[in-house]
Amino acid sequence: EHHLQRAISAQQVYGEKRDNMVIPVPEAESNIAYYESIYPGEFKMPKQLIHIQPFSLDAEQPDYDLDSEDEIFVNKLKKRMDISPLQFEEMIDRLEKGSGQQPVSLQEAKLLLKEDDELIREVYEYWIKKRKNCRGPSLIPAVKQEKRDGSSTNDPYVAFRRRTEKMQTRKNRKNDEASYEKMLKLRRDLSRAVTILEMIKRREKSKRELLHLTLEIIEKR
Asked: Which residues form the Enhancer of polycomb-like N-terminal domain (predicted)?
């Protein structure tokens, strides 16, 4: 950002664009051989574009992804030991999730990983070396969130901030009048239902009394 600040300051001072005060732009390079080695041109359209394997969906994929340095290490390690890229990712993922600010020891790594001791030692030493060279607290990138003590208020890289002020929304009086009319109509309908039930109750009582009187008349006759 200091290039941008220098360019703005120079424009404010001199009033014109200076040749030496510019924002640097990285140059684009093209390497056809390297591109073709990664993306071969022998592509054939498959019969199905979406493939579903229901039995492999339950397997949880590790959050750690290999980079170019990891691929070189895994290829070298393959010559001496039996290891796959997915297995390496799972091992690094368990080591990262088992560690906090301080990395786990070799003995703790053996408890976390269910592999051969020699393989664990090789991966552990590589992981420790890479973790020391890493600037962040973990090799797995994570979204930086707001701290509860409020110490990260001025940090521009914090995501998902909580609102400090409550949003003031416009009140629509038309909606309030419509809801009031609906409540009045609901109350009117409920009152009518109660009145109808009371009348039905009186009718049934009258029917029962009429039945008793009819029985008495028949018995007296």
From this structure: 8-97
At 37, list the tokens: 């080695």
Whole-model pTM: value is 0.46
Report the distance separating Cα 38 and Cα 119, nearest Å: 29
Of 148, 174, 144, 176, the closest CA to residue 159 belongs to: 144
Closest CA to 87 of 69, 109, 114: 114
Question: Cα(62)–Cα(94) distance, rounded to whole angstroms?
Answer: 8
Rounded distance, CA 17 to CA 8, Å? 9
Cα separation, 62 vs 69, whole angstroms: 18
How far is the C-alpha of 120 from the C-alpha of 109, rounded, in Å?
A: 8
Question: Rounded distance, CA 65 to CA 116, Å?
Answer: 22
- What Å distances lie between residue 71 and 36, 66, 83, 85, CA to CA? 19, 7, 12, 8
- For residue 211, give both structure tokens: 């039945």
Q: Cα separation of 90 and 65, whole Å?
A: 9
Sign of the CA dihedral running 34, 38, 43, 49: negative
Please answer whether residues 21 and 7 qualify as being in contact, where contact means their C-beta atoms are separated by less than 8 angstroms. yes
Condensed to tens digits (0 to 9), the pLDDT of residues 85-135 reads 888 998 888 888 888 778 888 888 888 888 888 888 888 999 888 888 887
Q: How far apart are CA 119 and CA 99, in angstroms?
A: 19
